[in-house]
Amino acid sequence: MKRRTFGTLVLSSILLLANQVIAQSIQRIEPLHWWVGMKTNKIQLVVYGDAIGECTQVKISKPGIDLLSVHHADNKNYLFLDIHIGADAQAGQYPIEFYKGNKRAGSFSYQLKERDSNAVKAQGINSSDLIYLIMPDRFANGNPGNDIVKDMRETALNRDSMYYRHGGDLEGVVGKLDYLQDLGITSVWLTPVLTNDMPQASYHGYANTENYHIDPRFGTNADYKRLGDELHRRGMKLVHDVVPNHVGLYHWTVVDKPMTDWLHEWPEFTQTTYKDQTVFDPYASQDDRRKMEKGWFDTTMPDMNQTNPYVRNYITQSHIWWIEEAGIDGFRIDTYPYNDLQFMADWTQSIVDEYPDFTFFGETWVHSVPNQVYFLGGQQVGQSIDTKLMGVTDFQLNYAIGEALNKEMDWTGGVNKLYSVLAADYQYPHPECNVLFLDNHDKDRFFSVVEEDITKYKSAVAWLMTTRGIPQLYYGTEILMKNFSNPDGLLREDFKGGFSGDAVNKFEASGRTGDEQDMWRYVKTLANYRKNNPVLHTGKTMQFVPEDGIYVYFRYDDDKTIMVIMNTNKESKMIKTGRFAERIQNYKQAKNIMTDKVFNIHEDLSLQAKETMVLELF
Fold first, then answer.
1. Distance, CA of 64 to CA of 441 (rounded, Å)
2. Could you report the per-residue pLDDT of 257-311, keeping only the tens digit for each?
């Protein structure tokens, strides 16, 4: 009896060991988990582990999850499992069993979670918002303990170098939310925060090596969720930067590819041409178009093959996962023109099916309004695919505001360019969804663009806060941060006061110079006025043809009228308001929202050189 008991014990130990071996050989299953009660109830699990693809059968016996199909890949280290999560599924652990022939080789427990019914998520970003763009590594360091992670490819930390990490993190951003809320910000957009285990310049985040993990130098998945929760508690929103087009060279699915067509690969390295025109040019060479869409963005950024159904599932599921996990409200989509547009249309629809109020804006760094419109799916510019993209980063107005303030007016140039670009809005399905900006992490700081002229700079901010669309500020705009993109690291300096040992703290009035404090007050006044006046969110727009370097436009609705007067001349000007009677109508007075000064709107107005005045009529 004792011998049989001992034998049974030995056999049980062997079986337990076998299960442990297979469990250890399964290095990951993604998505990391899913939820019950989702409309997206058919998902594809990626199972990765040593020779896991040699398993001939997979079983899920617990009611609630049905295994629909098992797909073997070219690489024996992968299995793809299509599962259906039933309406009666309960939150909990679901064992997945793997077999070689008739022998059970081991199991893995997959988790379904309850959805947080009290969580705020997927509200969408709209024209009532003011977005604040942060490069988290350069903003504030809330947890010095995560500055260096030993096992990662880049461990250098040097705030004196623009190329290395500086230590900013999610906890640092959370710690500055009161500052942002006071400034009038409603939405926070961080440059990508997913793990970027690249050996150089990993701080920028645009070459992610994981799809389901926050970079440990920024924090944890729980820290990111906390950021979303803290924003929502303040009535603010979270914008997540996604990069469907490419990943980093050390992404785990690139280091050990599931299949031969997971990426766009060439006999020798081929970079994208960056020529968006080839996508819509009716006379384009197919070879040119192929290089534009399928060439790599950089030697370290492999291009994903978005026509591969497994790639499509992998990308789409990870983005739905993050919305649910962290309470994300909108996506900024990096390098939008380089994606497969049919995939982007399907991707967008999948997300909107789950979250009807969710919104997207795509980076379209192109050089004309029709080029931008094309990627929105506008039929009026020959686009047969409705990408369902709601808005773009409006580079055309970005170019135009710079020209308006720096060049003299002529028939098409100077402030006439600003007028003409806005007049082209008829081409957009929803121009109010476009995101307006003066600068960002890739573009020259606008304070430098206007030659550090504070009056010009204030005019640009006034325009940004009052014209149609969704305004976006780049961190430090409010304190006159400057520099040209030569190289781009100069645009990404630390926000002084966000790091231990900083000699000054620009987050506090006491740490700002007189000019910086004046600018900070200017931004705060305009931002909070905008936040509290829906006419600047959804009001109609009327603009008048510029004359003598003076540009006037109105935002108006049934309750309020705002008049904006921009003097782009190098000298002061007197403006007769009678020309604008069509929109001034029966109003008699105006209040300068920056000074609270009230005057008769029918009297001549005096504007200083390069000054912009924002008036509320009554």
1. 46
2. 999 999 999 999 999 999 999 999 999 999 999 999 999 999 999 999 999 999 9
| Spatial separation of the C-alpha atoms in residues 350 and 39, rounded to whole Å | 10
Residue 472 near residue 441, CB atoms below 8 Å: no
**Token digits for 295?**
């060439």
Q: Distance between CA atoms of 393 and 381, rounded to whole angstroms?
A: 18
Helix axis angle, 454-466 to 514-531, nearest 10°: 10
Between CA 298 and CA 355 the distance in angstroms is: 33
pLDDT tens per residue, range 138-147: 999 999 999 9
Distances (CA, A) of 585 to 311, 445, 588, 607, 618: 58, 39, 9, 22, 10
Question: For residue 580, how many other CB atoms are within 10 A of its CB?
Answer: 18
Q: Give the count of beta carbons closer than 10 Å to the beta carbon of residue 308.
A: 18
Three-class SS state of 228:
helix
Phi, psi of 602 (to 5 degrees): -90, -5
pLDDT digits (tens, 9 = 90+) for 563-606: 999 999 999 999 999 999 999 999 999 999 999 999 999 999 99
Average pLDDT, the chain: 94
Q: What pLDDT shows up at residue 9?
A: 35
The CA-based dihedral angle spanning residues 278, 283, 284, 285, taken in that order and rounded to the nearest 10 degrees: 180
CA distance 180 to 186: 8
Euclidean distance between CA atoms 431 and 329, whole angstroms: 20
Instruction: Give the largest CA-CA distance in the chain.
Output: 110
Q: Is 385 helix (H, G, I), strand (E, B) or coil?
A: coil
For the chain, the distance separating the N- and C-terminal CA atoms, rounded to the nearest angstrom, is 99
Report strand pairing: 391-392 vs 359-362: parallel
Give residue-wise pLDDT tens across range 168-220: 999 999 999 999 999 999 999 999 999 999 999 999 999 999 999 999 999 99
Q: Is 448 helix (H, G, I), strand (E, B) or coil?
A: helix
On whether the CB atoms of residues 223 and 173 are closer than 8 A, the answer is no
* Burial (CB count within 10 angstroms: exposed 0-12, middle 13-18, buried 19+), residue 449: buried
- At residue 61, φ and ψ (nearest 5 deg) are -95, -15
Residue 10: what residue type? Answer: V
DSSP 8-state secondary structure symbol assigned to residue 614: E
Q: How far apart are CA 400 and CA 407, in angstroms?
A: 10
Measured distance CA(572)–CA(615) in Å, rounded: 18
Q: Which residues contact 6 (CB under 8 A, 6 or more apart)?
A: none
Structure token digits, residue 278: 């080839």
Residue 301 has phi, psi (to 5 degrees) of -130, 85
In 281-414, alpha helices (H): 286-294, 309-326, 341-354, 369-374, 395-406
Q: Which of 105, 113, 99 is nearest to 32 (CA)?
A: 113
**Catalytic residue list:** 334, 363
* Half-sphere exposure for 394 (CA within 13 Å, toward CB): 28
DSSP-derived letter for residue 150 is T
Smallest Cα–Cα separation from 491: which of 482, 501, 503, 500?
Answer: 482
CB-based burial label for 490 (10 Å; 0-12, 13-18, 19+): middle
Tell me if 92 sits within 8 A of 111, measured CB to CB: yes
For residue 539, the tally of other CB atoms under 10 A from its CB is 21
Residue 123: exposure state from Cβ atoms within 10 A (0-12, 13-18, ≥19): buried
